[in-house]
Specification:
155 residues; mainly alpha; 6 helices; 81% helix
Amino acid sequence: MSREFRRELRRELEAAEKAEASEPLRERFPRYFSIFSIGVAAAAAIGLVWGLLAETAIPNAIAYSWMLLGTGLLLVGGATGGGYNRVPTWALASRKRARRRELGPAADDEPDESIHDRLRRDLRPGPNPKAFWQVIGGLTYIGIGMALIELVAGN
């Protein structure tokens, strides 16, 4: 991929994130709810298969699959909301700068950016409602899984 293409792609992604952040919750909520419902059904199907293959209690397998999905969403939502999903790009940028230094001053076509500037820019991202709702969805999946385990254990 060329540098121009990557820059254009990044600008388009940032514009899409800003557009989603400005969209009212009333318009986003049905989309989020449908994705959540698909996740409930998919995790239940995986839990059913897991319970049948492992010969364990099927409600417990379904509950644990929901809790596993919830944990994954907590991790993903926290990483994207906090800007930590861009950490690998810092490593690649460091390798690129080291390579430019090896090639000499003729290869410098971009000014170096200090690590503090990159941290300030990338670890303080703008509003990201998608990450927030990923975390809320993760907590809800974990809560549903725990409620199912308590319901089954009570019988």
